Amino acid sequence: MLTTSLCRVKLKNPTILASGILGSSAASLARVANAGAGAVTKKSIGPKPWEGHDNPTMVEVTGGYLNAMGLPTPSVEESLTELAEYNRLSQTPLIASFYGQKFEDFPELARRLDGKADLLEANISCPNVEREFGKQFAGSCEDAAAVVKAIKAVSKTPLFVKLSPSVPSIREIARAVEKAGADGITAVNTVGPGMVIDLKTRRPVLANKMGGMSGPAVKPIMIRCVYDIYEVVKIPIIATGGILTGEDAAEAIMAGASAVGIGTGVKYRGIEVFKLVCKELEGFMKEEKFGSIEEIKGVAHG
Question: Contact 150/103 with Cβ under 8 angstroms?
Fold first, then answer.
């Protein structure tokens, strides 16, 4: 009842560990797979060792969290070792997320990651690293499409592209990356950037000053983005942003998603969140007489 597929990669259920949560090591990824996730995503791999931002990097706010991790990453060689070890430990599908500090990093990393995971995810949309890297490639159709074309020229592994909600028209960017050769879309990255100011110190709380918003408060924005994207592309969508319950998952699938990424939900409900969401989703499907994920997908479009 809960099985789904992404570019011919079969998932036992539609829940996916989102990038950046419990995804640094093979052991933590395998732990999430054993906890019931349908697939797991390796924390974004960068072109070189990178420490990310200074602490504090997270702050709780109403409805979720602001985070500015700054995409910390070990060396590519260490990441490749973790991917290989995960593949030895688990058969649950693996998504390798990666990012570039400059345009050329994307195809180079894609070449090195090709065949090392079931799916690749190009993170072109982190909202709080422009000061370090100079550009968010998800900000325009031209930049996003160029990155996708460069990746597809060197890699045969199915490619998902992680888009930003903070753009004038996510529909147009989704259409552009599909035309450029993307095999799927992850929607969306964190919302923002946003800021919290400490009233005692009279300074921003985060060391980076600003960060991306995640958690339940961003779910309505994510749902609208998935809905818009589904109307203009034919490739599968992973809905990520504020998924905590089976009902949340059903809503995202009705908007057009084939699977749902869970990140902050691990904080709110523990590592059991994947089994809990699946149990709740299955209960909803039985009550509403849906026989499969495919029957739910996109029904909100009429």
Answer: yes
